[in-house]
Write a structure and sequence with these properties.
Length: 180
Amino acid sequence: MRATPTHRRARTRSPLVQRWHEAADRHLSPLQRSLLVTWVSFGVTFGTVRVITHGIRGGWLPWGNVSAGGRHLHHYNLGIATLAGLGLVAVRGDERAIGHPAVAVAYGSGTALICDEFALLLDLQDVYWAKQGRLSVDVSLGVLSTLGAYLTAKPFWHEVGTVTRHHVASVAAHGLHPTG
């Protein structure tokens, strides 16, 4: 019997990651998978953007702001372009794209890029680094992203926790390397 790409990937995964995938297969419908990927992408993108903007401002990252024709391009522009592109996919009605993980990643990431600069869009003033409200926005969006990812796939996360605890306990009991 010839191994399919899915079977080849399954053989190269660690036992723990393989168990996570099995839990996803048991507990997540295609809609839940898509929502989970969207929420996780939102959270990862939001967090990454926050780190990058702090790194640019603090001078500890080797690059600077993106500009075109001498004008600063805010990252909400990338978010709007991403969501506009997804709108074209939706309007076109491409059945293969519906529920595709790449669409979910793009939607979560594009939305995070826009939400991160919501105050700028609301006030039409560059208040990105203003103290007022910055912490509450960061905390709110972080909690919202985490809560969304959890609630979207609650049974999956519970099984992942159980599988991970059993794996760690087994590794500890046998003195094995965690990836074994």
